[in-house]
Amino acid sequence: DEGSSKGSGGLKTANQIKVRHILCEKYGKASYKRRAMRQVMEAMALLKENKRFDEMRCLRPSDVNDDDHDYAGSLGWMQRGSMVKPFQDAAFELRPSTCAAPIYTDPPVKSKFGYHIIMVEDRK
Predict the structure, then answer these.
(1) Which of 49, 59, 83, 103 is the most exposed place for a label (fewest CB within 10 A)?
(2) Are 44 and 106 in contact (CB under 8 A)?
(3) For 1-124, where are the E strands, in sequence order?
(4) What tens-digit pLDDT sequence spans the chain (124 residues)?
């Protein structure tokens, strides 16, 4: 399964990565946390069925007044130290890949923001 293989062996040390993620936010209520976990696992299943990474979405609860959805957005170039630790640790272990054939974090990464499926597009 190419999507779930991190394969960090042989990666050169990088100080910056061009990163994308699918974020399913957990918010405060326990029901939102359960929903976020369910949604991120559904997104993971779709990725394993070869859905493009940049076409993925995790819907937000309807009573949260914000954007309609979380999506596999590009965060652009990120430097070490600019991300929350669990996200950064996982992201810097990934080999670069493309949205059409992503290598991503499996299992999803939990941070204070929610559950992330992360892929790296480039390193420098």
Answers:
(1) 49
(2) yes
(3) 16-25, 57-59, 69-79, 109-111, 114-123
(4) 344 445 455 677 889 999 999 988 877 778 878 888 888 999 999 999 999 998 887 655 554 445 544 556 889 999 999 999 999 999 999 999 999 999 999 999 999 988 999 999 999 9
Residue 37's identity, in one-letter code, is M
For residue 102, the Cα-to-chain-centroid distance in whole angstroms is 11
Return the SS3 of 37: helix
Q: What is the dihedral of CA 119, 35, 86, 45, to 10 degrees?
A: -30
- Amino acid letter for position 83: M
Distance CA 30, CA 35 (A): 9
Q: What is the largest CA-CA distance in the chain?
A: 46
Q: In what order do the strands lie in the sheet with 114-123?
A: 57-59, 69-79, 16-25, 114-123, 109-111
Task: Enumerate domains of the chain plus CATH numbers.
Answer: 2-123 (3.10.50.40)
CB 104 within 8 A of CB 79: no
Name residue 43's amino acid: A
